[in-house]
Amino acid sequence: MAKEQGGGPSDPTPGHPPEENGESLDTADRLLQAGRKLFSTKGFDGTSVRALTTEAGTNLGAITYHFESKDDLYIRVLEEVLEPIREHLEMLKGMPFSTPQRLEFFIRGMFQHLRENPETPRFFVQEIVLGEEPAPPILETLRVVVTVLTGIIQEGQAVGVIRDGDPMLMALSALSQPIYLSLMPRVLAREDLRRAGLPQPRSAPEDHAVDFVLGGLLVPEEESP
Amino acid sequence: MAKEQGGGPSDPTPGHPPEENGESLDTADRLLQAGRKLFSTKGFDGTSVRALTTEAGTNLGAITYHFESKDDLYIRVLEEVLEPIREHLEMLKGMPFSTPQRLEFFIRGMFQHLRENPETPRFFVQEIVLGEEPAPPILETLRVVVTVLTGIIQEGQAVGVIRDGDPMLMALSALSQPIYLSLMPRVLAREDLRRAGLPQPRSAPEDHAVDFVLGGLLVPEEESP
DNA sequence: CATGTAATCACACATACGTTTGAATTAATC
DNA sequence: GATTAATTCAAACGTATGTGTGATTACATG
């Protein structure tokens, strides 16, 4: 086997250009792309190495060569998918916003990320629900998100703009809306459900989520007496 | 093969007592029970026929005999798990409650069901996220739940106790809380996350969910001028 | 007790799985 | 142009998969 032991096929120092996307990605990147697509929609166990390598247009052995195993490819995909979320949270921390503005910024940022990366909530939910325990990148992301959100909420409670209540559960409820509302409408829009008379969403989930979460967390404004 | 073509091993008219649970369930029921446990925690693809029959303490061929196939067993499990939800909704329809009372009744009823049947939300999100399309029992349950909830919300909007907004998205948000909040706290209570300083929930998710959903949907009460 | 059906069983079948192997090919270095 | 390392490839490995087969046991009814 022509492979150094370090882990992965050495750094591609020789002249690879920044890689336009579409066709001319190198094999490892095409495998990551195939992993995003297939793992997210069919799950880890529902995705075979053969399906991945076919989707990536490469050979059966490519996963073992470029990554160590199917498991390792999966973890790499997960890390790539979750990275932008933590970046978004870093931005959130450094901004001089009020509590409601922070919450709205968080929700809209999450929606934007999930719109651009529809695989994310699928991975997230799979990891929460399946297997002994979620993979490390999921746990770490969850830890960061909940910590930041809980902090924002406690801050708001101290100032009196957020209701009394368990900050941790409030954080979970806020997080639930982008995840849940980026998954469900697609399902409910199915042809047969529409024909069965199911009412369809008429407004943007994003705007609804902001109203719903702020309504659920903020102390209601009093009418001037 | 000693099996009639109709589908399933004829009705057990001969003297089966109502079946205490625990040990003395017959093979088909033990397989359904094993399916609940394994399918819900490992997914369809992650659960082998051998794992199921071993868990049920029976022979490898038992699934093909008592059900037609692994797929058929899965659908049967799904139907059994979802049935009580529709029953709960039937009760909800017939009750002379106000809109907020209806919403609270729905949320608490869902929490109770999910507490007694922790597999339900796992099946639900697996079906939403994995595969081409959710299985028929899921779609039908979803249709009923969303239809009923949307009706309640529209009714409340007509009377003026519920805010303006898309009734369908409001229904989804209400449904999201029992599902999401019956899954997440278990994950966040993990030992390593607690050691990493993650704040832990201090109150009942059920009570929080009622406050959060009602806060997000109801028109805020005005202070008397 | 004899008969017939329901249920269980051990085992075989064909296919699909993730990974390994070693040769063939490509691309960079001297 | 020769040498070397990186990558791709076809084929094979051993194991696990879902289902089928036919014999065997359990049990109610005549």
Output the keywords.
homodimer; 225 residues; 10 helices; globular; disordered N terminus; DNA-binding
What does this structure look like?
2 copies of one chain form a homodimer. The model of chain A is unreliable at 1-23 (pLDDT under 50). With 225 residues, chain A is mainly alpha-helical. The first copy, chain A, has 10 helices and no strands. Chains A and B meet through helix 6, helix 7, helix 8 and helix 10 of A and helix 6, helix 7, helix 8 and helix 10 of B.
Whole-number average pLDDT of chain A?
87
Question: How big is the Rg of chain A?
Answer: 21 Å
User: How many individual β-strands of chain A?
Assistant: 0
Number of helices of chain A: 10
Q: Largest sheet of chain A at a glance?
A: none
Oligomer: homodimer
Q: Unreliable runs of chain A, pLDDT <50, ≥5 residues?
A: 1-23
Largest interface: A-B, 66 and 66 residues
**Strand percent estimate of chain A:** under 5%
Order of helices and strands of chain A: HHHHHHHHHH
